[in-house]
Amino acid sequence: MQNKVADLIVILGTGGTIAGKAAQANDNVGYKAGEIGVDALVAGVPGLSAFRLEARQLAQLDSKDMDFPTWRRLALAVEAQLAREEVRGVLITHGTDTLEETAYFLHRVLAPGKPVVLTAAMRPATALQLDGPQNMLDAAHLLNDPAACGVMVCVAGQVYGADQVQKAHSYRVDAFRGRDGTVLAQVEEGRVRWLSRALAAPQAIGSALLPAEGEAWPRVEIVLNHAHADGRLVRLLAHEGVEGLVVAGTGNGTLSTALEQALLDAQAAGIQVLRSTRCDGGPVAENGRGLPAAGGLSPVKARVELLLRLLGEPAQS
C-alpha cells in the first residue's frame, strides 16, 4: 500500500478576535470575540482554496478566558491530528491575549516534529481593514514550507518560536514581537524567508501527564516586584495553599529584601518558586541566593513551565 501524501492542513478554531464580531465595521474594540465559526473564517480567505484543508471547531472563547480544560482538549486534538499520516501540520486560530501561553504549553507538552502554527488577529472579522485573513493565509504557507517544524506563531507576516513570542502592544496589528527581537522567518507574498533556525524542540512531556477531564491542576500564581513590595501577598497565597509561585522581578530578577525573604520562606515550606523578570527582554541569571531562575522565559511562560513541572512530580502519599 502506498503511503499517503502528507499535504493536509487541519485548522482548529478556538475563537478569539480573529473570529470576533462588532455591530459597526468601524468598531475595533467594542466587539465580542469568538462569534464566527472556523468554517466561515476559512471561507472568507479565498487563497486558502489552494490548500487541502479540514476545519474543526474546538472552542469559541475570548482568549482572556482560556482555561486548563480547553488546553487539555487542544493538546489532545493536535496530537491526534499530527498522528494522521496525511496531515502536513495543524493551524490554530486563537485570541491574542493568551496566545503566547498556549503556544508554549503545546511546545512543552507535545514538542511536535510536524509544524503547528498559531495565528490570530488584532481586529475583529467585521472590521473595515482585516488582519485575520492574511494571517491565516500566511500561516498556511508557513505550514507548507519544507523547513517548518515545531510550534510557531505567525502574525503580521512575522514568524516567532513558541518559547520567544510575546504580545508587546495593546492595539496595533503588529502587536507581537520575539523576546530579544528574535524572529524565525518572514512570510512575503506566499514565500517563507527564514532568518534564523528554530531552537531544537525540547523532549515532549506528553499529553498523558495532563490531568484527566474534571481533575484539578496545580495552583501556580504570579507575583510582582515593585516599590515597597513587602511579601504580604506571598504569605497570603501560601496560606491559601498555592503550590507554585513565579515572581516577576525587576532587572535581572531582582527582588526587594522583604519579598525575597517571603519567597525563600515559601520555598522552604515546599512551594516551588521560579524567578523571572518584568523586563521585556533578556534572561534571568542564577544569583546564588536560593531562588531558581527562569532563564529567558517571561513570567507567564515561567508559570506554564512551573505548572508542567508540578504535574510531572509523583503524587505525595
TrEMBL record:
<feature type="domain" description="L-asparaginase N-terminal">
    <location>
        <begin position="9"/>
        <end position="197"/>
    </location>
</feature>
<dbReference type="InterPro" id="IPR040919">
    <property type="entry name" value="Asparaginase_C"/>
</dbReference>
<dbReference type="InterPro" id="IPR006034">
    <property type="entry name" value="Asparaginase/glutaminase-like"/>
</dbReference>
<dbReference type="InterPro" id="IPR027474">
    <property type="entry name" value="L-asparaginase_N"/>
</dbReference>
<dbReference type="InterPro" id="IPR027475">
    <property type="entry name" value="Asparaginase/glutaminase_AS2"/>
</dbReference>
<dbReference type="InterPro" id="IPR037152">
    <property type="entry name" value="L-asparaginase_N_sf"/>
</dbReference>
<feature type="active site">
    <location>
        <position position="17"/>
    </location>
</feature>
<dbReference type="InterPro" id="IPR027473">
    <property type="entry name" value="L-asparaginase_C"/>
</dbReference>
<feature type="active site">
    <location>
        <position position="96"/>
    </location>
</feature>
<dbReference type="InterPro" id="IPR036152">
    <property type="entry name" value="Asp/glu_Ase-like_sf"/>
</dbReference>
<protein>
    <submittedName>
        <fullName>Asparaginase</fullName>
    </submittedName>
</protein>
<dbReference type="Pfam" id="PF00710">
    <property type="entry name" value="Asparaginase"/>
</dbReference>
<dbReference type="Pfam" id="PF17763">
    <property type="entry name" value="Asparaginase_C"/>
</dbReference>
<feature type="domain" description="Asparaginase/glutaminase C-terminal">
    <location>
        <begin position="219"/>
        <end position="309"/>
    </location>
</feature>
<comment type="similarity">
    <text>Belongs to the asparaginase 1 family.</text>
</comment>
<keyword id="KW-0378">Hydrolase</keyword>
<dbReference type="InterPro" id="IPR004550">
    <property type="entry name" value="AsnASE_II"/>
</dbReference>
<dbReference type="InterPro" id="IPR020827">
    <property type="entry name" value="Asparaginase/glutaminase_AS1"/>
</dbReference>
